[in-house]
Amino acid sequence: MSKLDNLQAALESVLGGQIVSLKRELGEITITVAAKDSLNVAKLLRDHSELRFEQLIDLCGVDYSSYKDGAHEGPRFAAVSHLLSVNKNWRLRLKVFAPDDDFPSVPALTPIWNAANWFEREAFDMFGIIFEGHEDLRRILTDYGFIGHPLRKDFPTTGHVEMRYDAEQKRVVYQPVTIEPREITPRVIREENYGGL
User: Fold this and answer.
1) Model confidence pTM above 0.90
2) The domain containing residue 52 runs over which residues?
3) Can you say how many angstroms the Cα of residue 13 is from the centroid of all Cα atoms in its chain?
4) What is the number of domains present in the chain?
5) 55-67: per-residue pLDDT in tens?
6) Tell me, what CATH number does 83's domain have?
7) Which helix (H) or strand (E) holds 84?
8) Contact assessment for residue 123 and residue 99, using Cβ atoms and an 8 Å cutoff
9) Per-residue b/e over 104-124, b at no fewer than 16 CB within 10 Å?
């Protein structure tokens, strides 16, 4: 049995029916669990002697609204965590979909792995995913008055407002974006002998 086979067997044994899906791709395992089960699953992943995922390496938000040109069916937003077991020398990707697209919310993993703190704040700031139970869920990358979540697929590429320093008022002011939308078409070079052919 390979190490991946051992990990899959341990996951299926310990988590059982809490696993919504388990995928093996490119030498890695990704499990998807329901948001209602995610805290219990996280505790088992960290504490169970057969798993021992002591470290959360990364956590990010994902907007699946245009994933694979609309081929994705199901909830729009997910929180994806990358876990490491130093003890067992294996890795795992944990995916939790927010059940409500209009108000995406999943349980916070900060009570299980404190390293999730800033990652969850980033996913909240960029995607608008609410992490229930996070003690300090506030923006971390955008400005205090920023409106919207810039990594959502439906966020306009120019944004809504811009800020600048106004010398007369001696403060930063917000105003509607002044960039005129334009289409940039690259120039195509077509030469018979281009590239020495």
Assistant:
1) no
2) 3-147
3) 27
4) 1
5) 999 999 999 998 8
6) 3.30.460.80
7) strand 77-85
8) no
9) bbbbbbbebbebbbebbbbbb
